[in-house]
Write a structure and sequence with these properties.
Four copies of one chain form a homotetramer.
Chain A lengths: L2 H27 L6 H8 L3 H7 L3 H25 L4 H18 L1 H12 L7 H27 L8 H17 L13 H14 L3
The structure holds a DNA duplex.
DNA sequence: CATGAATGAGCATTCATTCAT
DNA sequence: TATGAATGAATGCTCATTCAT
């Protein structure tokens, strides 16, 4: 392995080291309690070093968000690759998103962070990056719907619109998890979520 | 009017004065730019006085959130009172929520703030308050659905669950507004939103 | 003494405490080594307290500058009040400025700071404040010149212009003090300065 | 061309490359926004490389300052070479300095930076370098005055002293440019400057 | 020669909150 | 009731410089 390659690898390593620290922090103290100095301390690096690898805090957040979306995407992709009916795929996708949010509170928080932050907040360049990574998710859902239409499982439909409805709805519903003991009263959040998946799928038929 | 009553009224007055200032600030500088000192200056009161009437910043935010929800509720209520078919009611409710978000970016931001902040964030007491105010919204939707079922416009249905699906979905979809030029690509957000309303209503039939 | 008066006095006191700290720091470590945190530590106050009394670092600098100019002005005023010929007054003013720079290296540095900082640097409001304080100096010189003209000591002259030439020249010359051992070579700076005063005065006759 | 010479030339080249970057930065973002890292990036060189050619930021600044002074000097020299009366020369020199400050705000700022920084600031060695480059300016003026004396245009005079008065005055007056709308009130800065040149010249006669 | 990763002190400023009066 | 002075930890970020490779 040449010097250059080793250098590149080390650079990658450091970046991961920083991202690891940030992710840990995110997980343990919530998104509002991450600061660059804390990340540095956690990563056992000088604060300057952090800035050497990431231009700003935003950039770290975005890297994390993209990690999260990539992880979610890979889960959904696995489902998409299965040889099963499209309606079943949608069902599994819905559940998979739920599971993802449960398993990765950290990534969920950060995706949420981007989805819910006021409109103009990130520099356009970064925003586009984030958005595009999100687009992969809805695109995948769209494909599933298209497939279902081809298979005559679903009615003819604007698959692109439905994909956004589907993902947007599930995202919105996830937020209600925190109302389990108040608004939701007697119902469990999980039940409502499952019900919603079915309802949405049925609306395609 | 007795002393006690006058006292109570004055208290109410002061509280409103503070809330007015906070609301103005929220509107003019965004949710991230509100500080207690700024509120005090705006309200032309001492900072100590603010803390006399609200014991924390959270409390002020919650009061504002409740205002927002109340405003939204009153809009929805107006619709509910109309003598129209339940499906039309749902349609109008959906649109009304959209309009509300457009008209009251300030309240939208603050409702969003509560809906999207990490799970354990507020003292339980305050949280309950917030949640309950939100419950009124879903309860109203539930009523509309029940009515529709009675009228045989909708199929028999778990109205409570549907209400949450309906409101959760629309809320989730609203967040995608900011992707109008990226994820949504060729579609307008408004179209997708309208499409979603119809889809959801249809799923009841 | 009422409460209000005591309060006002205490406020004044604190402000002076802060300004004292800043002035000391300025004197001991030069203008580039003053930071708000250092001022706070020196003043034995919390950093927040500093910001309670002064909106920004600029404001402290400006307060200091105005102190300095006021001090210089008072020295010049004393001269102006004397019952002596105007040419002698100018001579004393020139020397007085020199002495002032020697005695108050700290104030000299800060006046210099304002005089030599790039054009657009301060918020207009603050800039005006500073400028106006400076104007008093040139206005006083102008008066002296006018008086000299009336007394027929000086030729008829645009006193306003000359005042600026006079003060500007002396200011510029002061900067050359630091070249005493290099550019100035065999001459002493003081000699050149004295020579310049005389030359400028003579040019009025 | 031997190896050694080529080496020397390459060195010169690199230095210029760095200086170019620094100059550009100086011009485009002002003296307070230059950092070694920025210079490196601009010059498309490693930061280490910069430090190989200049051992500190000061050294770069000094190189730039000397460039500036050299440029000013060359302008003045052109005037000095003309076959015109010495008084006219002084007039043109004065105007030329004014024009130089207007044309080269960047160099003006950096010359100013050296002229106005607190006394002991640079390592003696560097300071001497800077000072000497400045000396050339006053020496040239001195020559002009000497010539004028020889030509009997000017009275017998200590030309060295006058040169410093002349240049110091004009430098000081330039600083007042920024007060055009405040202290200077109704007068234009340019008028005052012109007036001053004349006054200074007349004082020689 | 040339590189660029690493440092960490330092910066100006903000802010929710407390508490003596 | 009402005030507002005081706090100090915390924030994101910059920068000149070093040094191992």
């Amino acid at each position: 392995m040449g010097t250059r390659e080793r250098r590149a690898m080390e650079k990658q390593l450091r970046q991961n080291q920083i991202l690891d620290a940030a992710r840990n922090l995110l997980f343990s103290s919530g998104i509002d309690n991450i600061s660059m100095n804390k990340i540095a301390k956690h990563a056992e690096l000088g604060i300057g070093t952090i800035y050497f690898y990431f231009k700003s805090k935003h950039e770290i957040f975005i890297a994390l968000q993209m990690e999260g979306v990539a992880l979610l995407y890979s889960r959904l992709e696995t489902i998409h690759k299965k040889k099963i009916r499209s309606d079943e795929k949608l069902r599994l996708i819905g559940r998979s998103f739920y599971q993802f949010c449960e398993d990765h509170n950290d990534y969920y928080d950060i995706i949420n962070y981007f989805l819910s932050s006021p409109k103009i907040f990130f520099e356009p360049e970064l925003k586009t990056k984030v958005d595009m990574s999100g687009k992969k998710i809805t695109a995948l859902i769209e494909e599933v719907v298209c497939q279902g239409i081809k298979e005559n499982i679903f009615e003819k439909e604007d698959a692109g619109k439905f994909a956004i409805l589907f993902f947007g709805s599930l995202y919105g519903l996830m937020q209600f998890k925190k109302f389990e003991n108040t608004i939701l009263a007697s119902q469990t959040h999980k039940d409502i979520y499952e019900y919603s998946i079915e309802k949405l799928i049925k609306s395609l038929k």
